[in-house]
Design brief:
The structure is a single chain. With 616 residues, the chain is of the alpha/beta class. It contains 21 helices and 21 strands. It starts with 5 loop residues before the first strand and ends with a helix.
């Protein structure tokens, strides 16, 4: 049978795995993505799962999904719509069928499409194909649960454990469909369950049986092949944004010669950064899980005072709680990196969904005049670079720095070329040495205005520090009006002068034109894809994606002046747009906003950009 299968070459493919939270779809998608990256494909992923730890089984609200876009070139987005949908139950089909391309393939576990499953998922009839109008799709009903049980009937596993292996059967089917090797997954299973060899063999057997099943059924007449992408030589690995952030912070610690300390409290979707740092005791990383968000940041401030490169991680609700302590770090002028992995809000909001609604909080969410450097990462892999840069700016300028990422890039992954650290700049802590003459706590570098960093216990460098206003030189407590004005001005100017230490703004596309698309953060992949698509059609459109949000790069205003139209695209109701209106008032800013807990799609972006170009 396999010899008669047609082999179809494709440039890129989008697959969405979906099922109950307990069906293992996140793992299945991750293993497929890792395999595709290891064979050389460009990869971009989008994990999409509910906030509930265990939502009601079989309901639409409990559906967990993982979308992967892989191809023969760099993938900037996980794709708008999928070529293949794997739906492990009726709820997964109902939640995701709208995201399948017309004519696409839908693989279904036929065992779950019974009356009980259909009713629980909220179907009005017992015929999901007619009810959802699926006649234009290629449907593959496979008895995945039954076949998994048959595969492991000779094992000593209980029925519940056997059923848990059905995700491996599904993965084997999709591996066959797209001509993927299985040995990467087999190696993962052997390592993951090293202490449970029976479980390793069971999962391997189900994986192979799923692969063979797909190769022997008439329902899959084609096998698809996606060639490897052309890449710069080097060592690559698949990495998500949270891991890249953790590693970037570790790299900054190494370059600065300072030990890394992270005091944090677990919060979705930032916890994985904290976990990854906790794994790296071998690199001298110290972590402390505090009793709450406030304690987490306060331990980091104390560690910074003691001479550590200190960081704290959080998301929007936790950032609110940290605000007073951030003000303390600003007043004390101590280096500190605060990583905010944004999620849907306000309050508890949408813990597992992406949003960009913390920009105003990052810029101004503290009492008093409390300026702070704010950066944002834009892809899973460049979280490494901007975490490193956040550390460099914090340490060399003796000030807190906020790094904004978001749930989309934090959980999403892509291939990352492991860099040589020799290509990264040195980080020079302004530590005051014992025996320094004429030391004063707030004596500053004349260029950067950074004060010296005198570590406690250094003879002759004793000084006071805290949240009360300080004398502009001696650091003693001062309530003198003109001194307060001077210190407020100095702290603001110190942040403003960071412009001299960051790169100028670059564009994707021409340096002038009819439309400049302005974005920040995790929208980059969709924005650059939309812009490149329209440029290929001859449209005079370019992208300005801003990573340095406070201060802005020096040439931002000059860049804006070269375009007829400006549109700001962000996953909030217009925070960057309004910030730009305050900062560069002579320009008119159009807006493209979305707050659905989902990223933009390339289609909706190109529709909006064409409307602007057509004057609508």
């Amino acid at each position: 049978m396999d010899q008669k299968v047609s082999r179809v070459e494709m440039e890129d493919v989008v697959i969405r795995f979906s099922g109950d939270s307990g069906d293992g779809m996140q793992l299945t998608g991750t293993l497929f993505s890792d395999t595709s990256a290891l064979v050389g494909n460009g990869v971009s992923t989008f994990p999409d799962y509910p906030a509930e730890i265990r939502a009601p089984q079989g309901t639409v609200g409990g559906v967990s999904g993982f979308q992967v876009h892989f191809g023969s070139s760099k993938m900037n987005t996980p794709g708008d719509f999928c070529d293949v949908l794997v739906a492990m139950n009726p709820a997964a089909l109902k939640a995701n069928y709208v995201w399948v391309k017309k004519g696409g393939t839908i693989i279904l576990d036929a065992d779950t499409f019974n009356e009980k499953g259909l009713v629980r998922a909220g179907y009005k009839t017992l015929d999901p194909v007619s009810e959802l109008k699926l006649d234009d799709f290629h449907l593959i009903f496979a008895n995945i649960t039954s076949l998994t049980k048959e595969s492991l009937k000779e094992s000593e596993m209980d029925n519940k454990s056997i059923i848990r292996c059905k995700n491996m059967f599904t993965l084997g089917m999709v591996f066959n469909m797209f001509d993927r090797p299985m040995h990467h997954t087999e190696e993962y299973l052997a390592k993951k369950f090293a202490k449970k060899p029976g479980l390793v063999e069971a999962n391997k057997k189900v994986l192979k049986d799923g692969y063979n099943y797909a190769g022997n059924i008439h329902a899959m007449p084609n096998r698809y092949r996606v060639e490897a992408a052309t890449r710069e030589n080097g060592i690559y690995r698949n990495i998500n944004g949270n891991t890249a952030t953790a590693w970037g912070l570790i790299a900054a610690s190494e370059k600065s010669g300072l030990p890394l300390f992270c005091g944090s409290y677990p919060i979705t979707p930032a916890t994985e950064i904290f976990i990854e740092l906790a794994r790296r005791k071998d690199l001298g990383v110290k972590t402390l899980q505090a009793e709450d968000e406030i304690a987490g940041i306060c331990t980091s401030i104390g560690a910074s005072f003691a001479g550590n490169f200190a960081v704290t991680t959080t998301s929007g609700p936790g950032l609110s709680l940290k605000s007073e302590a951030i003000g303390l770090a600003v007043m004390a002028e101590l280096p500190l990196v605060i990583v905010d992995v944004q999620r849907g809000g306000p309050s508890t909001g949408l813990p597992t969904k992406t949003e960009q609604s913390d920009l105003f909080q990052a810029l101004w969410g503290r009492n008093g005049e409390c300026p702070m450097i704010v950066l944002s990462a834009s892809t899973p892999s460049n979280c490494f670079d901007y975490a490193f840069m956040a550390g460099k700016l914090a340490i060399e300028h003796m000030t807190p720095v906020m790094l904004l990422t978001d749930g989309f890039i934090a959980n999403g992954s892509q291939p990352w070329r492991i860099p040589s650290m020799s290509s990264y700049p040195a980080i020079n802590p302004p530590i005051v040495k014992e025996g320094t003459e004429g030391y004063y706590p707030y004596k500053r570098d004349p260029e950067s205005l950074a004060r010296g960093w005198a570590l406690p216990g250094t003879p002759g460098l004793e000084h006071r520090i805290g949240g009360l206003e300080k004398d502009s030189l001696k650091g003693s407590v001062s309530h003198e009006p003109k001194n307060h004005q001077k210190m407020v001005n100095t702290r603001a100017e110190k942040v403003a002068r960071v412009q001299n230490y960051i790169p100028e703004q670059e564009l994707v596309g021409d340096q002038e034109g009819d439309l400049l698309v302005i974005g920040w953060g995790g929208t980059y992949g969709h924005l650059v894809s939309a812009v490149n698509l329209m440029r290929a059609e001859g449209k005079k459109i370019s992208l300005c994606h801003i990573h340095y949000l406070n201060p802005f790069p020096k040439n931002i205003g000059e860049v804006f002046s070269r375009f007829k139209n400006l549109v700001v695209c962000e996953l909030n109701m217009g925070q960057l747009a309004n910030y730009l209106r305050m900062s560069y008032q002579k320009f008119d800013y159009k807006q493209m906003n979305k707050v659905e807990g989902l990223p933009f799609t390339v289609t909706e972006l190109t529709d909006k950009f064409n409307e602007i170009l057509e004057g609508k």
